[in-house]
Amino acid sequence: MSAPLALPLGERAVLDALRRDAHQLTGDHGDYDALLALIGDARIVLLGEASHGTHEFYRERARITKRLIAERGFTALAIEGDWPAAYRVNRYVAGARQDRDAEEALRDFGRFPTWMWRNADVLDLVGWLRTHNDCLARGARRVGFYGLDLYSLGASMEAVIGYLEGQDPDAAARARARYECLTPYAGDSAAYGQAVLLGVDEPCRRGVIEQLVELRRRAGEYLLRDGLVAEDEYFFAEQNAAVVANAEEYYRTMFGDRAMSWNLRDRHMADTLDQLIAHLDRHGGTARVVVWEHNSHIGDARATEMAQRGEINIGQLMRERHGHDVVNVGFTTYTGTVTASSEWGGAAERKRVRPALADSYEALLHATDVPSFLLCPLTAGESGRAMLEPRLERAIGVVYHPQTERQSHCFGASVARQFDALVHLDVTRAVEPLESTPSWELGEPPETYPSAL
To answer: 326-340 and 44-47: which strand pairing?
Structure first.
């Protein structure tokens, strides 16, 4: 047994309550029945992850997503990924023939960290989405695949110009001129933040705003052709123009106020999600969307230390805007391995995840000795009261420094206020990148290296 033999009476009662309320995950179809019951008619389901590189998080989110699509009529998956790269996948799963297979459709996810979306689990899901759509009756709404993030400065500028070249060459020339200020930074967007010190930000800011305004003002002209395809392609271009405008501001502020740049990014993702839902609603019916993002984005920021820093996130914004139409689900793990880098822009490595700190939620859930389970709803019974109490929570992004875990990867939170439901997977393994590197294949040496005792 993992739990200590002599626990305080209160802690023993908490563990007993957690064991009673835990829905054990066995791999059966009914594992997430309680979660689907909680979701009910909600239109937005936010599925988190405690790291960007854990296989089981992708696997379990895929299991939930497939059920929501097949049984509850969800027709869109939106991810913490770039809009233009995801839209290539969207075209593929909708039946386009430009890409031969799912692997090719994912190739635009080429910037760091490539393993987030170019991994074996996402490859399988994209293949499943294509097969699902291919089997639908003629005229039925296909499931789409969309990105919510704003890091794609260069790709989004190219997409806007490419769209306009097919609609209005003069407008394309104006867009190219407006974006010229940002073109030198298309391949290294962070360098724009440094260049702001030289006074280039105002001309760039004016140009990207003018371009977005013109594109929206002339939407009627570009939509003269009837049909869903024309509307989809305009929406793709308009969102790319919005990405450029918001990315310009994000990179301009990234070396200044951290909270401001974080908030700008999450507000952009929330606005993009709302615009996507409105766009899908115009196609008939009521759109229902699954969102895959990190816990730090989809868990309500007001229930964490983020609020003290003045930070918001998409989970908070969606709850404020949509209330009970939103259900958010957190994911945690105690130990195992993870795909991450040692520095921003570095190679993918297979790293060991150190056992969670003693005063964390992960350590509490580990002490139940239940290997994987769902708590749903989180506020139920005695276990719910325990999950309201503030504890540490772990967050591993694309960079992991286990040697400074408490400082780098832990924050205070009230999990039952942060999420509506929680999935705990006690021992997990690294997600498998489509392009593995020697550092990933070898993994980290044992802690007892070189003796291995």
So the answer is: parallel
